[in-house]
Amino acid sequence: MGGVLMVMNHHFGGFLLMLYLLSTTALNYQFWAVDAEKTAEQIEVLGRFLQGVGLMGGVVAFMATTDGVPLRVKRPQLHKQHAE
User: Which UniProt key words apply to this protein (predicted)?
Assistant: First the structure.
């Protein structure tokens, strides 16, 4: 749902994706809770955690570079500009 809204240029979709990524990354990839003797497992979980953090950064960057006006609202204005 968040991805569809985000593609349609809604900031609410970005917020939903951030909420999802934050909760799943923090709950599923707890590298700090892995036993210190299992270095390979800890590195794998850390990698997945950092991947989630990177995705969150991408969502924030996308939200920062869009104006948040839904595409449905923009289309009539664009057609008027091209007709003139």
Answer: Membrane, Transmembrane, Transmembrane helix
